[in-house]
């Protein structure tokens, strides 16, 4: 067992755990599963710092390592299967040389002075077979092995054969236990198709368990509709069909996550990163006399606490008090309830107030304006690495590869659409910034590299017209 810490996040040596999710430019709920895993791992008390990072929203995967306080970092992909993201996108965005399948013990590399352990996605861990069984027991506490079949439902994709391996392994393992008359893996998007489940189960009762990361459109709508399920228990002909909740949201997933961290060797504490410590010392010093960052106002209190609120709310005394762990969800939407994948786009919601301790100030700012403090500090030190557009474009793959063909007017058009609503100054596009909020300029928010929302807009402009 890893030791349980009494006061996380304050020690001079420690480990940072970064939980990576896919996220979305459109849907705020997409990050919920990864966020829940991060919360659960934080609550375990086994890491001095637990951060989140996403591919399609902030905190951004590309900047994740800069926000890690410790030089010993474990990166855990909260994905249900292996594939394009876990094998190509995440390692590439982290600055890893490694591309391709991650071995059972993970991959360890030095990146920018940090020792980074990258694990496999949790879905492939053998412990997930027990989670699957727990989901089956929840929906059907007792079953007759001779008269019951297990159907493990996966999404499947023809683009990567390995995405189904975890599901097939789990079904095969359970087929060999004698707990079921039959155990099969069926898929939504490739054969053998889930809609053919009667062919594979004869006249047996059936327990169906979705091998999905979270509840969503598939688990709640398409699967029940296409498979003829009316709820957790359906009568179909003479047999009963039990429909379980997805494996990814089961609390025991935490055990698989912790085992992956151990197996990847990320258990030894590391020293604090000096650049990171300097950034947060600078922030705290600036905040100790009152600080405005974009649309955020920070006021100090003599007891060492800080008040955070929208700058437009400084005169209000009817604000809703938020805990630090509520800030991410609240500031992730604007006042109309729209998702804010890039947190520095104008539209920080109003009506809330967070009173946070010195220790929690970092977590609070990670929620409101992720990575900004580290980048502003690096800018002030002349150490911010700016990535020009052609480098960002050159490393894109898959559907985004076409952005390499973007002309200057197309890039300019995307910037007008996306960056004009953002409080950051796009240094990557050659714009000038003299100083930052750390030095008294509230709108001095540097942007060192085009974000995925901008890249996505460029890709959209280059879409082939449909016939
Ligand atoms: S690329 Fe544009 S929209 Fe994205 S963070 Fe930078 S300035 Fe903001």
TrEMBL record:
Q: What Pfam families does UniProt report for this protein, alphabetically?
A: CbiX, DR2241, Fer4_23
GO terms (molecular function) for this protein are: lyase activity; metal ion binding
Domain DR2241 stabilising stretches? 276-376
Alphabetic keyword roster? Lyase, Metal-binding
Q: Which InterPro entries match?
A: CbiX-like, DR2241_Fer4, DR2241_middle, Sirohydro_Cobaltochel/CbiX
What residues does the DR2241 4Fe-4S iron-sulfur cluster binding domain cover?
Answer: 382-458
Coiled-coil intervals, chain numbering: none
NCBIfam families per the UniProt record, alphabetical: PRK02395.1-4
UniProt name for this protein:
Cobalamin biosynthesis protein CbiX
What organism is recorded for this protein? Deinococcus cavernae
